[in-house]
Amino acid sequence: DAGVTQSPTHLIKTRGQQVTLRCSPKSGHDTVSWYQQALGQGPQFIFQYYEEEERQRGNFPDRFSGHQFPNYSSELNVNALLLGDSALYLCASSLLRQGVFHEQYFGPGTRLTVT
Amino acid sequence: GIQVEQSPPDLILQEGANSTLRCNFSDSVNNLQWFHQNPWGQLINLFYIPSGTKQNGRLSATTVATERYSLLYISSSQTTDSGVYFCAGGETSYDKVIFGPGTSLSVIP
Q1: For residue A86, pLDDT beyond 90
Q2: Nearest CB to B93: which of A42, A44, A100?
Q3: Of B44, B48, B99, the CB nearest to A43
């Protein structure tokens, strides 16, 4: 049973560039959430996707956007990168069945460095 | 809004010792989880525990929903238990999950 996978593992970008991170959910899961974790802090919720729509969003600017595909995989896009966007980006998947919450499982993360 | 607090922020243990980590959460939190983040950044599910008590090996957790707190117990700690322990919760199925600030645990031989 494959867990949550993310790609790439590491990424180095220059300020002002754009980046796309990818996530494949755990088998059987239909919901994907993205988090940003700065060094020494807890993960901060970016947004959540279910049925290919953004359902919830945290306090992140519009430079952060996402997409969910019919196979439930997801992408996180960040435009006009800032130095402060350097962080570990975590993807979590869960199953939303009949409105009942199921626990989230996290991928290994993508470490983004903006120079 | 949702608030999640954890204590202590840092903990150093001798191998073999026991410890208790605490998580306080606001009224609106229903779906509480405990995670362990290892030194490589991987978040590992420990417990999904909106209420009651669960045990898994040397770890156990208790959530008293009516008093808005959860406790994570680690017994006979090992060096591999080192890392950061997070509790996290959300309001509903769709709601964003909010993480506490974490407890950084170091187990020394």
Answers
A1: yes
A2: A100
A3: B99
